[in-house]
Design brief:
InterPro entries: DNA-bd_dom_sf
Radius of gyration: 25 Å
Number of strands: 7
Organism: Secundilactobacillus hailunensis
Protein name: AP2 domain-containing protein
Structural class: alpha+beta
Strand order of the largest sheet: 1-2-3-4
Largest sheet: 4 strands, antiparallel
Shape: elongated
Helix content: 25-40%
Amino acid sequence: MSRMIEMKGKQFGRLTVIRQNGQDPKNADLLWECRCSCGNIVTVDGARLRGGYVRSCGCLRRELAHERYSQNEGFTRNMGNPENLRNSDGIMVSSLKESPRNTSGVVGVSYDKTTNRWLARLMYGGRYVLLKSFDNKAEAIDARKEAEKMYWHKTKVDKQIVG
């Protein structure tokens, strides 16, 4: 029989343990209710708390992310950029425009040096509808163009029917 480690009142990062609050059904670890220094109450697995994996309610992660992206010139330069949005057909504007990094000359087509093959991709409705590799560039371009016709045309037809 294992002995319970008393944690009430202990502090772990920004979290102060208030009380034991059940047991995790997945791994049988005790769960602990904690108050974060920002005021939020969260329930945390004791092993994750003691191991230092959890140090706040999530506010620390948000603060660190804000700090990182506010110091990232590339990110801040693109904040509020309307090109990061979707067009009237619901297609990401960024997927319509060729990136300066693009070496194939076709959006959604790239060369994979690790496999020495050409890749064709197209995302539609939040998932890849085309994600395939080809022996040559022409095949990859053809696959991308066909997928664009099939899926992007479908969007326009659906809007005409609904509208």
